[in-house]
Every structure is written in structure tokens, then in C-alpha cells.
From TrEMBL:
Residues flagged as site, Important for catalysis: Y135, K190
Cellular component per GO, a single term: cytosol
UniProt function note: Catalyzes the oxidation of 3-carboxy-2-hydroxy-4-methylpentanoate (3-isopropylmalate) to 3-carboxy-4-methyl-2-oxopentanoate. The product decarboxylates to 4-methyl-2 oxopentanoate.
Protein family according to the UniProt entry: Belongs to the isocitrate and isopropylmalate dehydrogenases family. LeuB type 1 subfamily.
Binding site for NAD(+): G280, S281, A282, P283, D284, I285, A286, G287, K288, G289, V290, A291, N292
Protein's name according to its UniProt entry: 3-isopropylmalate dehydrogenase
Length: 356
């Protein structure tokens, strides 16, 4: 099992270090190799995704990614910015399925602004298609008068588009994921107004016939946005397009209280995947030893489940995280009165102990 480890920038190195300790403690035959990515790679090699890093990622079964970016790179030309590394990896590895679980640990309900009974025990999985939709459809542009500036343009447009294979493959991913959970899929669309999403709905329905054991329903995106806040526990697996998924996954993230707790995965057709916390490099707290490593540790658990076929080890990690929260240990981002404040390394220590 080959794992490419790309810590990146800011808190990336601190949180990845804790995830590595946890993986090491499992005593499974992992081959882990680390490489530079993002701003760190730009500083050393003049590119955020050097060829050697890309090759390492391509040759691995999974990529464990920290975070990239820092304000100091904001003035660079777009292609050299740290965040381009993620886009480059997505594109080169063909990562088309983005998994964003929203889990609300009982112990953390206080950290959310929502009513405890709405979110306690929440465990949903949003699957966002990542390569199609209005973000990539052609043609796109603007009808402009003379110069090329938006301010002088009369009109701008993008194209919403999905092909049959694109919808089929993301639908399959969703049904397969549901089989490992409570066997329910909600497909989110806007079929009442958009051709693209009537098409989406029809294809998902077709694919659903191959999974008679999984219950499928459909929901309009505006209603889904409302239901996520009103009764989020109604959902299990939610599958949707690139743009709706972008918005709904951020909405779902906020149900759970802290961005420091949320893992994510992006998968390709051969179950090769990139696993990373949903948050960024947090330059405001980098180097202070206070970042929450749990999102990254939970991303490592997802990696075990979805790319490395080690369900048991994945559950072991997730159980250890729950134990640590039950012990009342909290990094500052999830701290509340009556709990014990710990730093990044102490949180790692506690997870290691809870694994045993
Ligand atoms: P951010 O997610 O890095 O930080 C937002 C806020 O959440 C900050 O106050 C930060 O301290 C806090 N936070 C984030 N992760 C945390 C953790 N594990 N523990 C405790 N607190 C945590 O988003 P922001 O500030 O918008 O972006 C900072 C940099 O990260 C930018 O350069 C941005 O482009 C990059 N970024 C990179 C991503 C990636 O690598 N996938 C994703 C999002 C942003
Ligand atoms: Mg977003």
C-alpha cells in the first residue's frame, strides 16, 4: 500500500505529522513517501506541483494531503500559486468524486449554533461531482464591446453541461458508498428548470436500477438547502453536481461546528484518491502548535476505507477519535467550558493512546 504524503504549507506539516503517527501505530504494511507541494514546493523548485511530486502521487494508491497556501504568494501569477497544486493533482489523477462527510460527534454539539437535537449524531456523506457542470462547460465568456475588460462587456455566460458517462460514474460511486452505509441515496438536482439536471435525474434513476438494495430519492437543490438546516438527519448519502455540491457541502460543514474536524476525499475510477482536511493552511495559527489535527487523522481513516480497503483500521481510528472527544480533550477551535484545552501534538498523543 503506497501512500504519497504531501504536507504542504502552514499548519499542513503539523497536522500531517500527527496523522502519520497514527498510521504508523496501525502496523500495516504502508510505504509512505513524502514530497513538497504548494508554496513549499514553489520556494524550493519554482513550481507548486513539481514533476517529482506529481509522479509520486500518480504512482501511489493514495495521497495524504495537508493544506497549501499562504498570503505571501497572493501576488504570484496564477499558475504558480500554491492552490494550483490541488487543481493539478485533481486533473492528472482524474479525481471526479469528492466525498465530504458531515459528522456531528455527540460531544461537540455545543460547538454548533444549531439545536442539539437536530444535529446530535448526524452522519451524512455529500458526494460532489468534481470535473463537469457549469464550472467547466464550454463555451464560456463574455460579449464585449472593444477592450477585453468585464467592465466594458454587455453580457457574460457559462455553459452547464454533463455527459452520460460523467453522470453514470458519479451515480455508481454514490450507490456503492451507500451500500457501505444505510443504503439511501438522495440525488439533488434542479430538474424543474434545467435541462442538464433533468438529464442528471434520469441517468441517476437508470443507474439506480442496478442497485435495487439502495433506496433512491430526488430533491430539488433549493429544498435540499432548506432540509439540510431543518432536518439534516433525514439524509444519508447525497449526490449532486459540481456547483450544487460546492455550496451544499459547505453548508453541511457548518452543521458540525468546526472546520478542524472535517475530512474529505477525492476519488478516481480506480479508487485512487486524495485525502485532505476540508480546511486550508490556516496561516493565522501556523507554527503555534494549536491546530486541530483531527480532520487530517479522519482523512487518513477515509483513505483506509475508500482507497486501501482497510475498513477495520478506518473504524479503529474513528473510534479512537470519538474516545478522545469523550475524554473532554479539545484543541482551541472546539474548546468549550468544562473541557480540557490541548495542543496539536497532545491531541495526536491522545489518539495514539486511544488506539491501543
Ligand atoms: P483556512 O481553512 O485555512 O482557515 C479559516 C479559519 O479556520 C482560520 O481562522 C483558521 O485558523 C481556522 N482553521 C482552519 N483549520 C484549522 C484547524 N485544523 N484547527 C484550528 N483552526 C483551523 O481558510 P483561509 O484562511 O481562507 O485560507 C488560508 C489559506 O489556505 C489560503 O492561502 C487559502 O487559499 C488556502 N486554502 C487551501 C485549501 C487546501 O489546501 N485544500 C483549502 C482552503 C484554503
Ligand atoms: Mg467551496
Amino acid at each position: 500500500m503506497k501512500i504519497a504524503v504531501l504536507p504542504g504549507d502552514g499548519i499542513g506539516t503539523e497536522i500531517i505529522a500527527q496523522a502519520i503517527r497514527v498510521l504508523d501505530a496501525l502496523e500495516l504494511p504502508f510505504e509512505m513517501e513524502t514530497a513538497l507541494v504548494g508554496g513549499a514546493a514553489y520556494d524550493a523548485h519554482g513550481h507548486p506541483l513539481p514533476d517529482a511530486t506529481l509522479k509520486l502521487a500518480k504512482d501511489a494508491d493514495a495521497v495524504l494531503f495537508g493544506a497549501v497556501g499562504d498570503w505571501k504568494y497572493d501576488t504570484l501569477e496564477r499558475q504558480f500559486r500554491p492552490e494550483q497544486a490541488i487543481l493539478g493533482l485533481r486533473k492528472n489523477l482524474g479525481l471526479f468524486a469528492n466525498f465530504r462527510p458531515a459528522i456531528c460527534y455527540e460531544q461537540l454539539v455545543d460547538a454548533s449554533s444549531l439545536k442539539p437535537e437536530l444535529i446530535a449524531g448526524l452522519d451524512i456523506l455529500i458526494i460532489r461531482e468534481l470535473t463537469g457542470d457549469i464550472y467547466f462547460g464550454q463555451p464560456r465568456g463574455r460579449r464585449t464591446a472593444v477592450d477585453g475588460h468585464f467592465s466594458g462587456a454587455e453580457e457574460a455566460f457559462d455553459t452547464m453541461r454533463y455527459s452520460r458517462p460523467e453522470v453514470e460514474r458519479i451515480a455508481r460511486v454514490a450507490f456503492e458508498a451507500a451500500r457501505k452505509r444505510s443504503k439511501r441515496v438522495t440525488s439533488v438536482d434542479k430538474a424543474n428548470v434545467l435541462e442538464t439536471f433533468q438529464f442528471w435525474k434520469d441517468i441517476v434513476t437508470e443507474v439506480g436500477k442496478e442497485y435495487p438494495d439502495v433506496e433512491l430519492d430526488h430533491m430539488y437543490v433549493d429544498n435540499a438547502a432548506m432540509q439540510l438546516v431543518k432536518a439534516p438527519k433525514k439524509f444519508d448519502v447525497v449526490v449532486t453536481g459540481n456547483m450544487f455540491g460546492d455550496i451544499l457541502s459547505d453548508e453541511a460543514a457548518m452543521l458540525t461546528g468546526s472546520i478542524g474536524m472535517l475530512p474529505s476525499a477525492s476519488l478516481n475510477a480506480s479508487s485512487q484518491g486524495l485525502y485532505e482536511p476540508s480546511h486550508g493552511s490556516a496561516p493565522d495559527i501556523a507554527g503555534k502548535g494549536v491546530a486541530n489535527p483531527l480532520a487530517t487523522i479522519l482523512s487518513a481513516a477515509m483513505m483506509l476505507r475508500y482507497s486501501l480497503n482497510q475498513e477495520e483500521a478506518a473504524v479503529r481510528i474513528e473510534t479512537a477519535v470519538k474516545k478522545v472527544l469523550a475524554q473532554g480533550l479539545r484543541t482551541p477551535d472546539i474548546f468549550s467550558k468544562g473541557t480540557t484545552k490541548v495542543g496539536t501534538v497532545e491531541m495526536g498523543d491522545a489518539v495514539l493512546k486511544a488506539l491501543a
